[in-house]
Amino acid sequence: MRDQFIERLSEMAESDPRVMLVTGDLGFGVLNDYRRRFPSQFINAGVAEQNMTGMATGLAMEGFIVYTYSIANFTFMRCLEQIRNDAAYHEANVNVVSIGGGFSYGALGMSHHATEDLAIMRALPGLTVVSPCDNWETMEAAQALAATPGPSYLRLDKSTAGETNYPGEVFELGKARRLREGTDLTIAACGGIVDEVLQAADQLREQGIRCRVLSVHTIKPLDTAALVSAAQETGGLLTVEEHNIVGGLGSAIAETLLDSGVFVNRFRRIGLADRYSSIVGSQGYLRSKYEMDRHAIIAAVKDLLNGAAIKKAA
């Protein structure tokens, strides 16, 4: 996703001199071409994320469209005070781009596992939170955020769900995308783990279970209409995220449904249980160990449907 982000950002920088990229001394293998082509639209703030964010806010207040760029935990956690007090409070167009959401940097251990970011960032007033599932969503979101007032958080994954868009499709922030049709249950997910969801949905379809799959790329603001319709039309929701289940996508969807007066008998969240990820390994390995891969998704869908069948029979 990061290559596609830089590709789109380069296109934007070429056509708009207000576009600025500020990095925390990261990603030069990816950023070298951008830096060479747009030296006046690139700043390396060094390993100083607080300064990076403060600098970005100052630029945004002067009319620039700014993107900060670094490894996930360092773009939002180390400089949370500056994001809150500088960028968000002043409604500055600072777009925080995190590379390596979830278990993307699984081999580097807990310090590099970004599993609390969605919860933290969506709690900040006026901040748009986006977690794309593939390269197309990444490129479209990067551009859409430039025209969106206020700060944002763009969470990029090392994995991707492949090509999910169709020719002529128009991307909209705040609008979930329906990737699979189904009436038995809805699976709502965000980020690269949507790939696991699609694999699970396709395997379930072969067994006669048809799940609607939603890519909820925008966690804030949520697509309330799509989620309410899905809950009412399929009778239940399973949420999947490579993130702590507390405060993330699943929590946001549950809040939205209840606030809308929608009550479903079948609802479950798949993600990291309320714990730290203490295991080291590849992204796929950690998804399996923490029961959020396609096998866990298939098992959860069947359990939800079986539970509903038992209640109906009773």
TrEMBL record:
Range of residues in the leader sequence: none
Keyword Transferase: yes
Annotated GO MF terms: 1-deoxy-D-xylulose-5-phosphate synthase activity
Classification via CDD domains: TPP_PYR_DXS_TK_like
Gene3D superfamilies: 3.40.50.920, 3.40.50.970
Domain Transketolase-like pyrimidine-binding stretches: 1-163
Listed EC numbers: 2.2.1.7
Pfam families the record matches: Transket_pyr, Transketolase_C
Keyword Transferase: yes
Reported cofactor(s): thiamine diphosphate
Residue intervals passing through the bilayer: none
Protein name: 1-deoxy-D-xylulose-5-phosphate synthase
Organism this protein belongs to: Lignipirellula cremea
Gene from which the chain derives: dxs_2
